[in-house]
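Page 47, continued from p. 46.
Same chain as before, 239 aa.
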Amino acid sequence: MRVDAWKDKGRIVHGFGMRHPGREKPSRKDWAGKAVQTEREPFPILSLRQVHGDRVVLFDPARETIEQIWQTEGDAIITRAAGFALGVFTADCLPILLYDPVRQAIGLVHAGWKGTAQGVIRKAVEKMVEGYGSRSANLLAALGPCIGPCCYEVDLPVKEAFISGEIPWEGVAIPRGDGKWLLDLQEANLFQMHKAGLLKENINILPMCTFCRGETFYSYRNADKTGGRQLNFIALKKD
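Result:
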């Protein structure tokens, strides 16, 4: 699944994963050592060990190997290296793609509620500004499918974490009573992206709920606890 506005956008290729049409439930380990294959070239997949945190990793092929990245903990990865597919695996969490068409840099963020509360998307943007000289106003972003506010019920510890992270709770959650709320992960990350300087017109959103559309996406909360993760990726084409 791709963003229509990005089809002819610069040097990038990208995609948000969907459920395998068969009975298989591929997970992160099934993609280790593999590549995203396009018509012109394969892109070896780079994937961090996702831990629901806020660590941002800068990938430089002169310093790290693909194998080292697969063993590195983190929930956001950025690079200017062409020929590699940055990948995150999701089954309700929010995947966010970043692209700087000026500095030719890309990033990919895995944002569950913990990473969102810790500001992982904001920190990824800051790392691109610091590491590559990017300007927030130049960045293009795409928010992929995740569990939606229709289905994502959370409790008081989540509210407290968001308040601690200075995310306006009333703007991203709807009360359900009995200490429960319905959380909008996309809206919470949009708030942080706007605050980090990204422009509204440069952000694309795929408002699809992974829980509601279990026939299309893997959902941890909807019967896929033991496996089944979609690969989301972005890559820079070689010159």
